[in-house]
Amino acid sequence: MVAESISANILIVDDEAAIRYSVSKTLQRIGYTVREAASGEEALEVLKGSWFDVVLTDIRMPGIDGVELVRRIKEANSDTVVILMTAYPNLGTAVEALRLGAHDYLIKPSSSQDIRASVARGVERAQALKRRRALLDAIRNSVHELSRAPEEEPESGGSDHEAVTVNAAFTPSAFVGEVTTSNIMILGPLVIHPGRYQIEVGNHLIDLTPTEFDLLLYLAANRSRVVPCHELVHEVRGYAVDEAEAREVIRPHVSNLRRKLKDAGQDADIIVNVRGIGYRLSETVDE
User: Fold this and answer.
1) Edge-to-edge strand order for the sheet containing 104-107?
2) Is the predicted pLDDT of residue 178 greater than 80, yes or no?
3) Are residues 111 and 176 in the same domain?
4) Domain that holds residue 184
5) Residues facing residue 82 across a β-bridge
6) At 285, is the pLDDT very low, low, confident or very high (cuts 50, 70, 90)?
């Protein structure tokens, strides 16, 4: 569920000018900014100087084909979402492309509705990856600053609680203990593996879905407050709903996350439901 008016940059790659024109017009009509490339080589040159949320590419092209283009794009920027198009569906090619990181696979001729729907899902995915990266960068920057700053006593006239909640909208420094390597973060009893969608409790590795992983990170980044469900849906899933619907969207993800933590021997109540308001992380995260 993504608003079609969302701003996004799309790159269309196809050696047939008529297809590029048709797909570009389809996407421009709903507000996307679109550029075109007539080959894989041209696409790579365009990508060097510009950021695109989604690359929509044909598979069969002279020179660098679509599958090779996926591989090179993912090597350069793993957050770019790639959608493949082909008039010659082949299971082996599709599996290889998806293995390399392609987001979707369209069969030509595709209807305008199918193209718009696939690109909308791709844009939603790209926006989610941007939000996750921003969260991780904020967390790492906060930890870096904390590790450099000398310990200071709070000034008189204010409580510790006031000092923590001055910037309550986004306060990752309130919960992170330390970063052991550039790719691992420690959050209380949890070890976070950002690039793998995994957390570790004791000696147990827990695989999370992207939504579960983003949900945990967002709650962590807002450790000092209760986060409403509609905010979680917007920041984790990328679309807006009212609070009642948001509770129904978020509840199964929280339940699954709690179950996985419990199966690994961790207190499932690490995620606290504040009835009528939303969710927060338990104080045990700070222990």
Assistant:
1) 33-37, 9-13, 54-58, 81-86, 104-107
2) no
3) no
4) 164-286
5) 55
6) low
Q: Other CB atoms closer than 10 Å to residue 234's CB: what's the count?
A: 15
Q: What is the DSSP letter of 155?
A: P
Task: Count CB neighbours of 267 within 10 A.
Answer: 13
Residue listed under structure tokens 């793998």: 196
Assess if residue 157 is contained within a domain. no
User: 75 is written with which tokens?
Assistant: 């090597």
pLDDT at 130: 80
Bridge partners (DSSP) of residue 260 are: none
Q: What is the pTM of this model?
A: 0.54
263 within a domain of the structure (yes/no)? yes
Mean pLDDT along residues 170-189: 49
| Alpha-carbon span 65 to 223, nearest angstrom | 46
Q: Does 229 map to a domain?
A: yes
Q: Does residue 180 lie within any of the structural domains?
A: yes
Encoded tokens for 57: 């590419």
Q: Which position has the higher pLDDT, 284 or 37?
A: 37
What average pLDDT does the chain have? 78
Rounded distance between C-alpha atoms, residue 270 and residue 258, angstroms: 8
Give Cα separations from 9 to 2, 81, 126, 234, 269 (angstroms): 15, 11, 10, 20, 41
229 pLDDT exceeds 90? yes
Query: What gap in Å lies between CA 281 and CA 108, rounded to an integer?
Result: 47
How many structural domains are present in the chain?
Answer: 2
φ, ψ (nearest 5 deg) of residue 167: -115, 60
